[in-house]
Amino acid sequence: MSADIRAMSEQLAADPTSLVFLPLAEQLLARGELAHASRVARKGAERHAHRADVHDLVARIALAQGDEVTAERAWQQSLGISAEFGAAHRGLGFLCYRQGRWDEAEAHLGAARRATPGDPALEAAWEALHVARAEAAAEAEAADRARAARHAEEHPPLPTPGQLFDEVLGESGQVALLLDRDGLVVAGQYLTARGEDLGALIGAHLSGVGDEASRAMRHFGLGAWTRIALETEAASVVMAPTAGGVTLVAAPREVPLGLVRRTLEQSAAVARRWMGEDA
Amino acid sequence: MSAFAPILANVTRHRGVTACLVVAEEDGIVIDGTAQVGVDTAAFAALTASLYWKAERASASAGFGQTSFCELEAERGRVLAAGRNGVLVVAVAEPRANLGLLRVELLKAAATL
Fold this sequence. Notes:
The structure holds 2 protein chains of 2 kinds. By secondary structure, chain A is α+β, with helices and mostly antiparallel strands. Helices cover 61% and strands 12% of the residues of chain A.
């Protein structure tokens, strides 16, 4: 123990109301004797609770001990006594900066700069705060973008009914329709070269074939029908029961039959998903 | 031997074929045919002819022109039909039958009708 500390300790023992505890605790803090410094400062704070600088001392010792909660509480007590107390704003500014509480850090560091203009440590902290804020904003923005991209990937927008099969059909020249049990078009379209949609006409005529097949299956003993394929002069037509209705694919004769069958399978799967059957 | 015997022979020699019938499209009456025991040829003929007729009408109405081939696939087998001049060649087959070969055989047979 240094002579100074011993002398101050004796003085404080002789007069516990003395303000000598302030330089004593400061010296103990500087020497790293944190527990001792804390005891001295806390006792002093009990006797001199109205002094803002005493709470600042308690806060700095607490922070050196790694106790951020106590430090913050003590600095807030300082500001309760003197709202413009620069040391408390400085301490809180650094603490909030360290904790990433950018708005509070800016407010306290701003107040501390007004209280002690030109303090190099405060100026450096002020600059670092703004760099860190910009980086945090950029990181948050990137995280938002990544989250939005992930969400878009996991929840792709549902296609409109008319475009339901566009991705499956591509440029193959085939058309696909989802018909309900009455032969009405639920999704898909059959556009002619002139842009006329013949889906309703095709659906109305061909859905009856599925009904006829269902009737026949009751007598054939072959189980439920799973696909009907028709070859006509102008087209190959395949259909499969789907979600209580029928998925129908029509293709020009030059499209290979195997490809038409495959398109039907894919279209029926898309239709089932769209109708929520595979959800 | 009927005029359709070669057709029936060519179709039924394919693996998995359980019946081959020559049927009048208009009324579904069997003109000639051969089938394994247990196959209800009258029912297959009548209902396949009806289905084919319906498909033909629907295709024509939809603007696809005349129907030449129809296949009905089910959980435990398939029924195929090819037609020309009001007569159909109908084949009933198990799922293991080779669809491509059978289709070619039926279209070839229909071309001779």
